[in-house]
Amino acid sequence: MVYTFSTWLFFFYFYCFLGWIWETCYVSVLKARWVNRGFMRGPFLPIYGSGAIVVLIFTLPFRTNAALVFLVGMTSATILEYFTGVAMEKMFHVRYWDYSSQRLNLNGHICVTSSLAWGAFSVILTLYGHTLVERLVSHLSVNVLEMIVFVLTVYISIDMAESVREAFNLKEVLLSLEESSEEFRRLQKHFEVASAFYGGELKERSEAGLRRLNSALETGKEMCDRLGESSRNSRAAIMEKVANAKSKKEYGRIDSLLRRNPHAVSKMHEEAFTRFLTLSSEEEEPR
133, 228, 258, 287: which has the fewest Cβ within 10 Å? Predict the structure, then answer.
């Protein structure tokens, strides 16, 4: 069978859909609840579609050699997974999958268990599964195939654009939370330094020492007021940002993105990510 560009696109979308079925069922069983798994909102997981295409490109020339298919498929898909993970974390500051808890992992983006799974998937796909998909496509006329591909391309492009926007919105929220935390810690540090400095001057009993004492008390009180005000303002700013996001339905979309990726973490903004999840849970509590 000769593969055209439309054929390859159909294969990509088809395996994106199969990957979504697998991941959604697997994660839903682990969580004991329904989880619409994936970066996108629709029933497609591009990492599986991309993995399948890469595997097919490299393994179809020797599709009858199971050992070679396993080795080449495992290697090519693992490389794809690693660089995809690195690129997504660099762009969005969030890891949407993380193998840090697994043994023999590389920066949390890949691990031996995942690589072996890719190898097994490659054998099943190349030697058995893909033959059935080829037969399905061979029964479709060129016009029907191109129409299906066109509709799916439009739908998936819109879904991907929205999902990328949600991921960037989450990144902005994390950056805002981190900035507020840094400001709080900076003011707290200044207060501690000022308190220590003026505290040493209390030993002086001179008139100048008493003036320093009064100045220290006033400065300390002012610093406490600023610290408290900063804390209140920071939280108010955060809640205002969340409220504004909610009014634009952005918060709900970000929350939906994280629900689709329950294992997502942010190594770059770990504290801010935790604070955001805490704020999300507080907002969801009934009043």
Answer: 287
pTM of the predicted structure, to 2 decimals: 0.75
Length of the chain in terms of residues written = 287
**Rounded (5°) CA angle 238-241-243:** 110
Query: For residues 86 and 65, what is the distance between their CA atoms, to the nearest angstrom?
Result: 32
Task: Tell whether 115 and 215 lie within a shared domain.
Answer: no
Bridge partners, 236 (sequence order): none
d(CA 118, CA 28): 21
Measured distance CA(109)–CA(154) in Å, rounded: 30
137 domain-assigned: yes
Print pLDDT tens along the chain (287 aa): 788 999 999 999 999 999 999 999 988 998 888 888 889 999 999 999 999 999 999 999 888 899 999 999 999 999 999 999 999 999 999 999 999 999 899 999 999 999 999 999 999 999 999 999 999 999 999 999 999 999 999 999 999 999 999 999 999 988 888 887 766 566 556 555 555 555 554 444 455 555 655 665 566 556 556 555 555 555 555 555 555 544 456 777 888 898 888 889 999 888 888 888 887 665 555 44
> Strand locations in 86-217, DSSP E?
105-106, 110-111
Of 260, 248, 85, nearest in space to 172 by CA: 248
| Whether residue 243 is found in the same domain as residue 122 | no
